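Deviation from plan, reported transparently: 2-phosphoglycolic acid complex.
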Amino acid sequence: MNLPRKIIIGNWKLNDTVAEGTVLLHKIHQELKGFSTATIIVCPPATHLYPLHRELTSLKSEPKIELGAQNISDFESGAHTGEVSAIMVRDLAKYSIIGHSERRTHYGETDDQITRKVAIALEHGLQPILCVGENLQQRHDGKAHQVVLDQLNTDLADVTAAELKKVIIAYEPIWAIGTGTFAKPAEIEDMLRLIRNALVQSFGQLASTESRIVYGGSVDAENAKTILNLQGCDGVLVGGASLKPKEFATIVRATDK
Ligand code: PGA
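Because the crystal trials were delayed, the predicted structure below was used instead.
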C-alpha cells in the first residue's frame, strides 16, 4: 500500500514584503531542489498570493510548492471592508488556513464564523486547513479534549462525508505556538488519536481515513523528525521556522524515512 505523502505547511503570518517573500520562496525551492516526496504548502500574506502564484508557475522543477491563504472571509462578497473571499483566493491558492488560534484570540473569530468559512472554502474548491487546539488553562483544567471536540463538532458541522477528504485538521495547542515549547510526543499522539476517532464517529471510517491530521506549535529542524514519526501524524504546520529557508527545508526533508 502506498502511504500518503506527509504534508509540511509553512505559515508566514504577518511577515515579509512581496519582494522578500519572493526571495524566500525561491530560496526554499533552491534548498529543496529535486525533492519530490512531500506535499509542501506555503501560506504567505494575501498580498503575496498573486505574485507568488506567478513565480510558482514559472518554476518547472521539483519540488512542487503549493500555496495557501492564511484566512478567508466568512462571506462570499459584499460590504465587508478589508476581507478577502474564497472566490478571490481560489484561482491563486489551493488551500486556506481557517480558524488559526491567533484569529480566534486576537480577532475574536467565533466557531460559528469558522463553520461558515470551512463551508465556503469547500464550496469554492479551496481545501481548508482547520486549526483546533486548547489553551494552557484549559489543559490544566483537564478540558483539552472537550475543547478540541467542541471545536471539531461546530467547525465541521456543514461538511459532508464526501468533502471531509479535502479537509486538513491542524492540532495546534495554543501554549505551544511561538513559545519554543512543543507538546510532548505522548500529548500529541493522544490528541491526534482523539481527533481521528472523532472524525470516524461523525463521518464514518471510510471518509475519515482520507482526511489528514497535522500538528503545529514550535515545530523546528530539531524536533520535526520526532513529531513526523508519531503515530497518526500526517504532517506539520510550521510558523516561525518556515521563514528560514534552510530550517524549513530541513523540516521538509525530515519526512524522508
Ligand atoms: P510556530 O507557529 O511554529 O511559530 O509555533 C505555528 C503556527 O502558528 O501555526
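The longest helix spans residues 185-203. We consider this an acceptable substitute for the interim report.
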